Amino acid sequence: MARLLRRVGVAGATVIGVSLITFIVLDALPGDPLAAYAPPDVTRRLDDAQREALAHELGLDRPLLVRYAEWCGGVLRGDLGRSLRSRRPVAEELARRLIPTLELNLAAFALVLIFGLPLGWWAARRPGTPLERFTSLGLLALYAAPSFWIAMVLQHLFAVRWGLLPLYGRTPPSGPSGPLVRLAHLALPASCLALHGLAFYARLARNTAREGLSSWHALEARTLGVTERRVFFRHALRPSLVALATLLGLVLPAFVSGSVLIESLFGWPGLGRLYVQAVLSRDFPVVLGLTVLTGSLTVAGSLLADMIAGLIDPRWRAGDER
Amino acid sequence: MRFTISAEPATLDFLGASDVWSLTIGELISDPLVVFDEDLSIRPAAAASWEWSADHRELRFHLTPGLSWHDGRPVTSADVVHTYQRLIDPLTGDATRAASLSLVTDVIAIDPETVLVRYAQPFAPALSAWAVVPLVPAHTDPESFPPIGCGPWKLARWDRGERLILAAYRDHPRNPPLIERLELEVLADYSTRLAALDAGRVDISGLLPSQWRDRKKDADFLGRFNITEFRMLYYWYIAWRMDGSNPFFADARVRQAMTLAIDRQAYLDSLGADASAVAVSSFHPESWAFDRSVSPWPHDPARARALLDEAGWKLGEDSLVRERGGVPLRFTLTYAATSAETEKIAAFVKASLAEVGAETELRPLEWAVCLDAIRRRDFQALMSGMHLDPDPDPYDLWHSSQTETGANYAGLADEQIDGWIEQARVSFEREERSRIYRLVQRRLHELQPNTFFFYPNSRSVVVRELAGVSAGPRGMLRVRPGPAAWHWQAPPPSAAR
After folding, report:
1. Cα-based distances in Å from B315 to A307, B308, B319, B324, B380
2. How far is A262 from chain B (nearest CA, A)?
3. Which of B238, B151, B235 is CA-nearest to residue B482?
4. Beta carbons of B161 and A265 less than 8 Å apart
């Protein structure tokens, strides 16, 4: 418990550190700070006095530490500031896009778990057979294929040619938008995201399972007459799950940082596009909000991974007590 | 009717934002006092008529009879006063549009149908500033949603990040729409847009030149769609910084040689099937102020070499780069590396100039960094694109007072041009203004502060079932009657999807 509290404390300090570093880096970035406000063709009409007034209005003319302190005060009250571009509260902008991004990434991750892990385990039990080799090669090809290419092929087949699934968007422009319709909209983008992850996780599951199956413990169990099925569950499945849980910590922040390419191709209203747009247009409050959000999730993810690993594998808990 | 747009508006507070989609949708939902038509002339909108006082310090607008807000209340002069006050308030208004009204001293409601605008001094382009200010009602909370306007369309739905659905406002006295709904689908990716056209999901969408190249011989595609083209209010240019901060471009002969050396038509031809045109000046070819008698400088490398020789930049033996007094003709070309197209133009320019003995060092910068370099005038030559105002007043582009803070990036300071620009700003007769701008264009042509590269074209695909579609330099949506005149001559294919 003490260890957990300590880790939570460190996590909090890390998030504060991330926010401060982001603040300093954003401030030091070269470029016109009014770029977020309007394109130069528009701001060119402002003279120096008007530019200064605008910078003042946007709070860009005050010292860095003052702005940081104010920003921290705001965060404690749940106020992440206002977007320079839309003038809307950052928290509102993030919240609006967080749900679609989570939806897409969780759906993709679920597909990966449902199809990727069993595929890896299946392959691990048939090492060297032609079918296993063929599957591995297929997975490798899938992993190497650019996701925009996969997306365009799937769009062409399922939406344009066969008209089975919606081409883009999260909701239909008209008509009912019940759960089934939502799922249909999710199908293509989530599959595209999943196909890439699928190859990765299947290979991971296969490798860890294979290691477990060829370990001394597995050999010993077999000689003691334990069935192959039990050997598999004990020595192959469990190590794969631990490896997966550790990875989860790395995957969690990717759930919110979004996939720019997939979101753009499928017109998906997520965080990925917001991130890119905010960085390019120097919309500092939005970039800062997103960085702190992903930073917090990275930290939370690694905490969570530790905890899950502890639940699955008693050795982790033993390490804790030592 | 489904139309793809590349991004969502930053906000639907019509007065608060300056991104193109906020402005476009603002103008659909609420009428400004006046609007631009296809040749960029000013036409009545919320104001049915207007007149200047004899000293041109007072502008009187008479509101269109029968014009009402979407909630049924009449549009009155109090709303115009309210709109103006919200725009100039830094807390609620967009500073850039407020700046274009900086000569206004007062906006007064004379009676419910008449508004008087007082100006500090006579200013001929003043009227056009009102064409980008959609009116907002005085009787509703500005933060309320959906926003209420007095335009031909009212906001029916906004699926954030996905689409805006506008419904026809049939009680609009001037442009009641013929179709029921205008669905603006946010779709940034061009390959998905094309797929959406193929799948019959959308009715109008933009097309990239490369996509058009692939499809222009596709009989099935041409059978389903019409093509609408328009020349954007935009031009590509290279500004030669001529203020003496570098040893090259203060001499007009060098600038002329640069233009002569670049085969702009060949560049456009290399894009294939693109209807963009070589640019002549900063005036838009479809504007009433454009001088059709001036034609672009030709591609003539021999003449370019002769001009450089004449200017003292000579090619030594065994040398590929010209020199003058030991200084090589080697300069940097700054540009924002925002797309493959800018890289392509930069490489083309570099190769062209090398042929006449000038060495170009390319300096690609990230977008916001480039903006900062432009603002600090930290460049020798700058390649960029310029958005034009619908009003042709080129004060911020070419007046000598704008060399450090405005958009006179080349640093042109020419007494004649200054005089003409100032004169045109107080000439209220269009013929007179037009005559003066012709003088400006001829002088610009001779001085070549910029190499005016090309006027880009925009191409959209429209399903054949839709009729009445037209486009002006401001696009298909920002023109009157615009979408209000669109109508179905056969059932819409997208309705089935």
Report:
1. 74, 9, 6, 9, 21
2. 10
3. B151
4. no
CA angle B14, B16, B21 (to 5 degrees): 55
Interface of B with A in 131-160 (CB under 8 A): 159-160
Query: Within an 8 Å CB–CB cutoff, is residue B375 touching chain A?
Result: yes
Residues 157-196 of B with CB under 8 A from A: 159-163, 165, 183, 185-189, 191-192, 195-196
B19 vs A85: CB contact, 8 Å cut-off?
Answer: yes
Provide the token pair at B158. 């906004």
Contact A38 B18 (CB under 8 A): yes
Residues in chain B: 497
Does 1.10.3720.10 match the CATH number of domain A96-321? yes
pLDDT along chain B (497 residues), means of 10: 91 84 94 91 95 96 96 97 92 82 94 97 94 95 88 94 95 95 94 93 90 89 93 94 96 98 92 78 93 95 97 91 95 91 92 96 90 90 92 94 90 97 95 97 97 92 94 91 93 68
Nearest CA in chain A to B5: A267
Q: Helices (H), strands (E): how many in chain A?
A: 16, 0
B374 and chain A in contact, CB less than 8 A = yes
**pLDDT tens-digit map of A3-58:** 778 888 888 888 889 889 888 888 887 776 666 565 555 555 566 777 777 777 77
State both tokens at B333.
């070309």
| Helix/strand/coil (H/E/C) assignment for every residue in chain B | CEEEECCCCCCCCCCCCCCHHHHHHHHHHCCCCEEECCCCCEEECCEEEEEECCCCCEEEEEECCCCECCCCCECCHHHHHHHHHHHHCCCCCCHHHHHCCCCEEEEEEEECCEEEEEECCCCHHHHHHHHHCCCCCCCCCCCCCCCCCCCCEEEEEEECCCEEEEEECCCCCCCCCCCCEEEEEECCCHHHHHHHHHCCCCCEEEECHHHHHHHCCCHHHHHHEEEEEEECCEEEEEEECCCCCCCCCCCHHHHHHHHHHCCHHHHHHHHCCCCCEECCCCCCCCCCCCCCCCCCCCCCHHHHHHHHHHCCCECCCCCCCCEECCEECEEEEEEECCCHHHHHHHHHHHHHHHCCCCEEEEEEECHHHHHHHHHCCCCCEEEEEEECCCCCCCHHHHCHHHCCCCCCCCCCCCHHHHHHHHHHHCCCCHHHHHHHHHHHHHHHHHHCCEEEEEECEEEEEEECCEECCCCECCECCCCCCHHHHCEECCCCHHHHC
Whether residues B187 and A163 touch (CB distance < 8 A) is answered with: no
User: Hey, are the CB atoms on A167 and B201 less than 8 Å from each other?
Assistant: yes
- Single out the residue of B24, B466, B457 nearest to residue B202, CA to CA: B466
Interface test with A, best of B339, B398, B405, B408 (most A CBs within 10 A): B405
Which one of B100, B189, B195 has the shortest CB-CB distance to A156?
B195
Q: Is residue A38 within 8 angstroms of chain B, CB to CB?
A: yes
Q: CB-based contact (8 Å) between B400 and chain A?
A: no
What's the ipTM? 0.80
Give the span between the Cα atoms of B258 and B451, in whole angstroms: 7
Beta bridge partners of B238: B383, B451
Q: Given an 8 Å threshold on Cβ–Cβ distance, is A40 in contact with B162?
A: no
Interface membership of A185 toward B (CB under 8 Å): no
* Whether A30 and B368 lie within 8 Å, measured CB to CB: yes
Q: CB–CB of A45 and B195 under 8 A?
A: no
List of residues 6+ apart from B144 with CB closer than 8 A: none
B274 in reach of chain A (CB within 8 A): no
pTM to 2 decimals?
Answer: 0.85
